[in-house]
Amino acid sequence: MIAPTYMKNTFSNALKRHQELVERTLYAIAPDVEKASEILLAAIKGNHFVFTCGNGGSAADSQHFSGEFLSRYKDDRRPLRAMALTADTSALTAIGNDYHFDLVFARKIRGLGAPGDVLVSFTTSGTSKNIVAAVKQAKAQGLKTIVFSGEGGAYLRDIADAVIAVPSRETARIQEVHQIIYHSLCEHIDKVLPIMNLT
Which of 23, 75, 160, 187 has the largest CB neighbor count within 10 A? Predict the structure, then answer.
């Protein structure tokens, strides 16, 4: 049959592209991941909020990441203060309708963010207008900013505190690697919190 053969090839090629990107990413972004971990741990130590946002699949990643904070990753520990800015559809649609979709996250940050908080944004392209606006708003209010992106978002280092730019422009592969990265951040936080007496 033709279909199973095509499926096998498609699956095999996807896995190969994933593996190649993981290997490239390891060396390209390790310092950025370390910087992001320091920012997140400082926020946790100060009992600050971690806000997350993204569009589409990246919105799902932002909610996944904040969920790991509020519930747990693997180890039992206290809930960490986190909020996905993508989750309140009433506020999102109101802001989009009354103002502009470019401001759906920036306006939430303006209302909820405080110095010492952290904004973690996900944009595979690196050019999402509502993400860039949110990062700028967060910086103006004294929040720390972390951006997960593809290689097209490297320029955001000019405005963000840490940019984890996966070296690819293929959306699906970037999102897969983003998940590995934020899971590794969660694992690191779980290991470090007891050492910092923050459990």
Answer: 160
Fold category of 2-195 in CATH: Rossmann fold (3.40.50)
Which residues, 6+ apart, have CB-to-CB distance to 95 below 8 Å?
A: 103, 104, 107, 108
The string of pLDDT tens digits covering residues 11-68 is: 999 999 999 998 888 888 999 999 999 999 999 999 999 999 999 999 999 999 999 9
Q: Is the pTM of this model over 0.85?
A: yes
Position 3 scores a pLDDT of 62
162 SS3 class: strand
Report phi then psi at 82, rounded to 5: -150, 150
Q: Determine the distance from the C-alpha atom of residue 29 to the mean position of all C-alpha atoms in its chain, rounded to a whole number.
A: 14
Question: For the CA atoms of 86, 52, 186, 183, what is the dihedral angle to 10 degrees?
Answer: 60
End-to-end CA distance of the chain: 55
Sorted by where each begins, the domain ranges of the chain are 2-195
Take residue 195 and report the two structure tokens written for it. 């050492």
